[in-house]
């Protein structure tokens, strides 16, 4: 049974949404607030709803956060007012909890004379269960998202600690709390003198360690290290916790060895991660080129030009062209000043939003058979409008090639995919998708070829949105607003579909009924 992940307002541009980006730094003698700002800027693609950082001078933590992009939340005046030598930062897209200032991160708590700040990338699947155990009611105010819940658990553990005073209270509390969490979490946490990073035992979301002059850095992706001049050391392993303080860094295991099962989200390679990131030791850009090469081998078609849909479709188009021998060209110009958070609540507004963000180059398209390469196809809103735009620009044929398998299942580990009733491939057969999008042909990259294209096929991946095989059991009552006012704990009925998929399904049903009655549909 599928559950509602609150798709009440759908983006104008059809894009999967990542949960967050996290950053942590311990560097005495450095202006860590400014370095954290740069790190968050490098991670802006992972979340555009809110940004924040917490900075400590060793005695006090000061937190600044707000809704908006990193550049709108912070300026030199704000950063100069944040002295200290350790910090954590966060960019947010919500998957549990509403898009409000209250849910911006880092989240903070006081505990037994200590201050704690925490940033979280991912999504817990046992949020409601833990909230009940803590005696916290939905909408009570103190806890409104899963990250709030985690920091509350840590604070209570510190308050119960009989060994307080040895400067390892945060470490012990996190070792106690982390095994209670289920789902996806790459977390950075701090008190006045320590920065801690931890990955869940499946390693759904990335987290890496870097070395900077006089200190250490944690970040969701390697470009954040590059931007501040840090040297990449390694990726944190699934289930690993790293503690950074004045003595350097040390690594501990937060989970039993039997619980470790690497399952990095495949969409990190397909779409989410920056092309200059490295995951599992492999460059993301080169992986996307290989996806295009695999597509050309799997689903060749005669055409005059290969074009990628900006941005993540472009390297795959290069790979398709390289393998097929068909020239690659630019068919779309992207307006970079319309971000991922452009909101359009109706089908008409969504179509207009696509035209605002992408404009065809008619001179490159007119009279040509075009192969369009894109990273994924979720609701189909963008691609249907793009096909119309390409035909209006003079394309004689439009052949769609997707560098991932059909998205047929909702994600509960940090991607806002929406419910199954909104997923094109969960409701229509391949030929029906072709007709709905009005393309001449369509092909998805198979799962085995996608995994091969990553360059690290044996490393372990989560493919639940393609296969329905969830590495962690999912409660049927799970919803984005599980801790909001009105949350009932009951499974939520899918809302009315706003993408036009319902009309296509209804048309198919009507055609089938007419056929049973002996009429030609």
Strand content: 15-25%
The proportion of residues forming helix, as a percent range, comes to: 25-40%
The overall pLDDT, averaged over residues, is 86
How many DSSP helices? 18
What's the total count of β strands? 23
Cα Rg: 24 Å
- How many domain modules? 2
Description:
This protein has 521 residues and is α+β, with helices and mostly antiparallel strands. The chain has 2 domains: 20-263, Aminohydrolase, N-terminal nucleophile (Ntn) domain (Glutamine Phosphoribosylpyrophosphate, subunit 1, domain 1, 4-Layer Sandwich); 285-469 and 492-510, Rossmann fold (3-Layer(aba) Sandwich). Helices cover 30% and strands 23% of the residues. The chain has 18 helices and 23 strands. The strands form 6 sheets. The protein has a 7-stranded antiparallel sheet with strand order 3-2-4-1-10-9-11. Helix 5 crosses helix 6, helix 9 (284-298) crosses helix 10 and helix 9 packs antiparallel against helix 16 (447-453). It is elongated. The model is unreliable at 1-13, 340-345, 482-499 and 513-521 (pLDDT under 50).
Entry summary:
The protein is α+β, with helices and mostly antiparallel strands and 521 residues long.
């Amino acid at each position: 049974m599928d559950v509602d992940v609150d798709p009440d307002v759908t983006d104008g541009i059809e894009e999967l949404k990542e949960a967050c980006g996290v950053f942590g730094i311990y560097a005495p003698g450095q202006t860590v607030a400014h370095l954290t700002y740069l790190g968050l800027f490098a991670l802006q693609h992972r979340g555009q709803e809110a940004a924040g950082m917490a900075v400590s001078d060793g005695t006090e933590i000061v937190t600044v956060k707000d809704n908006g992009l990193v550049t709108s939340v912070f300026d030199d005046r704000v950063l100069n007012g944040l002295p200290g030598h350790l910090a954590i930062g966060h960019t947010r897209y919500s998957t549990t909890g509403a898009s409000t200032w209250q849910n911006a991160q880092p989240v903070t708590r006081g505990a037994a004379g200590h201050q704690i700040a925490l940033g979280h990338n991912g999504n817990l699947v046992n949020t409601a269960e833990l909230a009940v155990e803590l005696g916290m009611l939905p909408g009570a105010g103190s806890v409104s998202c899963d990250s709030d819940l985690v920091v509350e658990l840590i604070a209570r553990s510190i308050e119960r600690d009989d060994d307080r005073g040895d400067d390892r209270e945060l470490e012990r509390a996190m070792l106690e709390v982390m095994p209670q969490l289920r789902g996806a979490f790459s977390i950075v946490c701090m008190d006045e003198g320590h920065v801690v990073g931890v990955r869940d035992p499946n390693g759904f979301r990335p987290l890496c360690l870097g070395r900077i002059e006089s200190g250490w850095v944690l970040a969701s992706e390697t470009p954040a290290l590059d931007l501040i001049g840090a040297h990449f050391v390694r990726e944190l392993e699934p289930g690993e916790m790293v503690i950074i303080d004045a003595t350097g860094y040390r690594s501990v295991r937060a989970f039993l060895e039997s619980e470790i099962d690497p399952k990095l989200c495949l969409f990190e390679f397909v779409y989410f991660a920056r092309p200059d990131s490295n995951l599992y030791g492999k460059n993301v850009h080169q992986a996307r080129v290989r996806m295009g090469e695999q597509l050309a081998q799997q689903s060749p078609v005669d055409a005059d030009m290969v074009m990628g849909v900006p941005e993540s479709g472009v390297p795959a188009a290069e790979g398709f062209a390289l393998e097929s021998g068909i020239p690659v060209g630019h068919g779309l110009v992207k307006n970079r000043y319309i971000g991922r958070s452009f909101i359009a609540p109706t089908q008409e507004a969504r179509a207009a939003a696509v035209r605002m963000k992408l404009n065809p180059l008619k001179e490159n398209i007119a009279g040509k058979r075009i192969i369009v390469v894109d990273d994924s196809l979720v609701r189909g809103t963008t691609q249907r409008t793009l096909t119309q735009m390409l035909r209006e620009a003079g394309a004689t044929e439009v052949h769609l090639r997707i560098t991932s398998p059909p998205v047929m299942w909702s994600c509960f580990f940090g991607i806002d995919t929406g419910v199954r009733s909104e997923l094109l491939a969960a409701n229509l057969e391949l030929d029906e998708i072709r007709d709905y999008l009005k393309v001449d042909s369509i092909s998805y990259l198979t799962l085995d070829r996608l995994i091969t294209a990553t360059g690290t096929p044996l490393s372990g991946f989560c493919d639940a949105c393609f296969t329905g095989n969830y590495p962690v059991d999912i409660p049927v009552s799970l919803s984005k607003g599980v801790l909001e006012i009105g949350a009932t704990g009951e499974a939520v009925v899918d809302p009315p579909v706003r993408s036009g998929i319902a009309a296509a399904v209804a048309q198919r049903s009507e055609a089938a009924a007419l056929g049973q009655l002996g009429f030609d549909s």
